[in-house]
Amino acid sequence: MATDKTAVIGFPIDHSLSPVIHNHWIKALGLNIKPYEKISVDPSTFEEQINNLKAEGYGGLNVTVPLKELAFNISDETSGVSKKLKSVNTLSLSFEKINGDNTDAVGFINSLDKKTIEKNITNKKTLVLGAGGSARSVVYALNELGGHVRLFNRTTEKAQILLDDLSLNSSPVRAEELEDYANSSSFIINTTSLGQKAGEHNNILSFENIETETFIYDLIYNPKRSSFLEQAEAKGLKIQNGLRMLIEQAACSFQIWHKIKVDVSNELMSLLESA
Ligand code: NAP
Question: Among candidates 177, 72, 187, which has minimal Cα distance to 121?
């Protein structure tokens, strides 16, 4: 049976596209449940607000920045991947207990074409830029796909912590090594927030000597073509933004709550591109 009341929580939450995605599926499937909402939840009173939402009958909550670790901490039971990432983006609330899951890593994997995985990731050198919350899921996923992951972050200590937490036997890429690593990688992904604000330029890589077969991914989906992707495209490289991942992680949450597997249609992609 489908879960009646679902929402995304975050702080802030105004710009979330999750309601557009979930409500598209709720409508398309004709589910007789409440529309998916967005709710601002202050981290300082997190547990109290979750208990209030539970009392109000919310059965499924997506969790975004900066609440994913708090969501992990209040979950009674967590999936294997949530434990590994110490982060939860999907809460299932019932009278007896709170279940926590994380669909970011599988959402990222599902966003990739099979050909890209084979050609650019498995047994290939991959480079991740950034060591924030989303980088954790991406590094975990690339490692699961058999990629040789190297990690660069402006703050090197944070990259080291991430690698240690995920038990990856690798040291962070230093600034002076970055161009060499980039030039020998088959897959490069920007997980930093640099380029998200209007007019902000991502100058982490020069793109001068990147191999022509290298696949360039940016988790940013708004703008649709970040400055990182623009630079890559100008060099004729294959590119992908974060929109598909956003939808795929939502599809996994949808399946957890409603037990229905949904497709990512072109109609939904266009709806979001114009949102
Ligand atoms: P986060 O936890 O706040 O991490 C931000 C990262 O960006 C850190 O590594 C930070 O480096 C780096 N950074 C910020 N400003 C920088 C600058 N000026 N120069 C170099 N590095 C900089 O954020 P997050 O949750 O990982 O999200 C990152 C981006 O991914 C956001 O744009 C978000 O919208 C996007 N995202 C997309 C999806 C999707 O489904 N497509 C999912 C999650 C996130 P320091 O450690 O040095 O501060």
Answer: 187
